[in-house]
Design brief:
644 residues; mainly beta; Immunoglobulin-like; 24-stranded antiparallel beta barrel; 40 strands; globular
Length: 644
């Protein structure tokens, strides 16, 4: 039994180390996406804040892998933006006239409050001829110009201006010693402390860190875990101890300990031990030895488990590299072997490409699936002559078709006082990106304010109506029509006035027609109701005719997905627990842990998706009834689950 337990823990350790590049690449992707969205259209600005939130949550989730690196990166330098702001006044510039080719849309004003050391980025949207504040992003500074936090605010679904996320850092000697994550409480219209981290240093060395999280039962932040570190005379970390908070004892309880050994200044051995309450000592569990090549890159990692007083080899991971003339890594392949030391399998592959002067042109990440490399993501960068980024395009493998498809592309061009960002959509039929719409920023002052305008560049409707916009002197489409999901035997609704705007006070008449008769559409004014039969299943297209009486008629198409829901018993599938608080497990002979899942609301909105793995996490999902859809190898099934 002990051997099985040790093997399980070792597998977990191998998984952590094997996932490290994937985690780092995911964090890197988030950093790139956040930077790309810096001057994105208005609808992407809230996404930027959400990605920043996801970035910090990912660091928290993978604390054993990347947390310390992220903490070091948080030691802020003086902000370049702050240095170029006049510290003795609040700077606000007036609205700039637009050119004829771009439509007034968004106004963003930067201001700096010297008394509070707060820089604000306030976003206004042009509504009925008036500028309406819809969003604000605040950055906080100390008197030395260090960035010590940020907060974002937005208009919620009730039209109230509320807070989203807020992070506040406390610095000592340029190092983060306290970081607080605050959330907005609408009942009191103020922030409350959701989580915090406390850190201590000796010189430049981090010696301890505590994490506190919000406890809903106690309505306060409580201790969660803490790390303690020791170092040798050269500043190398030699131990890392993890303690968990015991609510029974109201004190810290030992959990795990890492010991590190070094050779030629590089870590070559790490040993994991777990705390044994019975003996009140740490018990050896697993070990990893690391070797390096002449470039300092990891060459191999060997894993051992501790069993009956001796170390037993279990597996190893080998890295193969291809370099360019400047010793930059062009390709890295990771292979893993198991207890026989001979049998190997590919794990992942990284690819990169550079200009002659070192500018990065390509980032790609592959995993080994079904005896071949499967692309997880690829970034292709567009650079100027100085190797500065002008944009990038992203590709990935569509798990439902196995095809490589595009997901996001933008490109920036510059005029004397303007920056134009063009966004592209993916044409799946022709496997190519096409221009979708552009935004132009007019800069009054490079720091203080810029104005956004947009123009649509695609006027051709498609059957799924995604990224299809109409623009005419009579009316225009103002928002993308999403795919609508309908549960068989039920109905879903959408308001067309959300997507189309009629100009010059004219009226518009909508009519609807199903092309495949999987749904029965009807329209009352602008409200479309899509009703499906109990036995319906598949994809339908609903044609929407938009008529300005006596003047023009245009057509758009709505993609409708009809989901047939089977009970767990009817399909012979076991879902447990259901109702559930945090997760569900799925068991059925036709679906493995590699099955893909999608979670829909009863209104047909996609809530989350991913691979089943061992469990499906519902953390962060609101209470209610949802539809869980499984798909693998051409088979699919949907059924209800309840989040309590």
């Amino acid at each position: 039994m002990k051997q099985l337990f040790t093997a399980t823990l070792l597998c977990a350790l191998v998984t952590v180390f094997a996932q490290k590049p994937a985690v780092q690449n995911q964090i890197k992707r988030l950093e790139q996406d956040i930077e790309a969205l810096k001057f994105a259209p208005n609808e992407y600005r809230l996404l930027k804040a959400e990605l920043q939130d996801e970035y910090l949550k990912l660091a928290e989730k993978n604390k054993l892998v990347v947390r310390q690196d992220l903490l070091i990166q948080q030691n802020m330098e003086v902000s370049d933006e702050l240095l170029s702001i006049s510290m003795d006044s609040v700077l606000i510039r007036k609205y700039v006239k637009t050119s004829d080719s771009f439509k007034d849309s968004v106004r963003i004003i930067f201001s700096f409050d010297n008394s509070k050391l707060v820089e604000s980025e306030t976003t206004y949207e042009l509504r009925s001829g008036e500028w309406v504040m819809i969003k604000k992003f605040e950055s906080f500074y100390d008197e030395d110009g260090h960035d010590i936090g940020w907060a974002n605010y937005f208009i919620d679904s009730f039209g109230e201006f509320v807070g989203g996320s807020k992070y506040v850092f406390e610095l000592e000697d340029g190092k983060v010693v306290s970081s607080e994550n605050l959330r907005w409480d609408s009942s009191i219209q103020d922030w409350y402390l959701y989580s915090k981290n406390l850190s201590g240093y000796e010189g430049d060395n981090l010696v301890y860190q505590e994490s506190w999280n919000w406890n809903w039962d106690l309505s306060e932040c409580v201790p969660n875990y803490r790390y303690s570190f020791t170092y040798d005379s050269e500043g190398n970390r030699i131990t890392q101890t993890t303690d968990d908070w015991s609510f029974d004892e109201e004190d810290w309880s030992p959990d795990a300990q890492y010991e590190f050994q070094y050779q030629d200044g590089r870590q070559w051995t790490s040993i994991l031990s777990w705390w044994d309450d019975a003996t009140e000592q740490y018990q050896l569990d697993s070990r990893m030895n690391t070797s390096y090549n002449s470039n300092g890159d990891v060459l191999a990692e060997y894993f051992y488990s501790y069993n009956e007083g001796e170390w037993v080899y279990t597996s190893n991971v080998v890295h193969w590299y291809t370099y360019d003339a400047a010793n930059r890594v062009l390709e890295e392949v990771q292979e893993q072997s198991f207890d026989d030391g001979v049998t190997t399998r590919n794990v992942y592959k990284l690819e990169a490409a550079y200009t002659e002067t070192g500018g990065k042109l390509l980032d790609a990440f592959y995993t080994w699936q079904n005896d071949e490399w499967t692309l997880q993501y690829k970034y292709i960068y567009t650079l100027n002559e100085e190797d500065e980024s002008l944009g990038f395009e992203v590709y990935y493998t569509d798990w439902s078709t196995g095809l490589i498809v595009g997901s996001f592309k933008f490109l920036m061009t510059y005029g004397e006082d303007t920056q134009t960002t063009t966004y592209y959509a993916w044409d799946a039929e022709n496997s190519v990106y096409y221009k979708n719409y552009s935004w132009e920023a007019h800069f009054v002052d490079d720091v203080v304010e810029y104005e956004d305008y947009y123009v649509f560049t695609n006027d051709v409707p498609s059957l799924d109506a995604r990224k299809t916009y109409f623009r005419s002197p009579l009316f225009e489409q103002i928002e993308e029509i999403p795919t609508i999901s309908v549960i068989a035997g039920t109905s879903s609704q959408l308001d067309l006035d959300t997507y189309f705007e009629v100009n010059k006070g004219r009226s518009v008449v909508y009519s609807v027609e199903s092309l495949k008769s999987l749904v029965n559409p009807s329209v009352d004014g602008s409200l479309v109701t899509l009703t499906s039969g109990a036995d319906a299943e598949g994809t339908d297209s609903v044609k929407v005719s938009i008529a300005v009486p006596g003047l023009a008629i245009e057509e758009a198409y709505i993609k409708v997905e009809v989901l047939k829901v089977l009970s767990a018993k009817e399909f012979g599938i076991e879902v447990y627990p259901n109702p559930t608080a945090n997760f569900v497990s799925v068991s059925h002979q036709d679906f493995t842990s590699e099955a893909n899942y999608q979670l829909f609301s009863l209104g047909g909105h996609l809530i989350t998706y991913g691979k089943v793995a061992k469990v499906i996490s519902l953390q962060g999902v609101q209470k209610g009834t949802y539809i869980l859809r499984l798909e693998e190898n051409g088979k699919s099934a949907s059924y209800r689950i309840i989040k309590k």
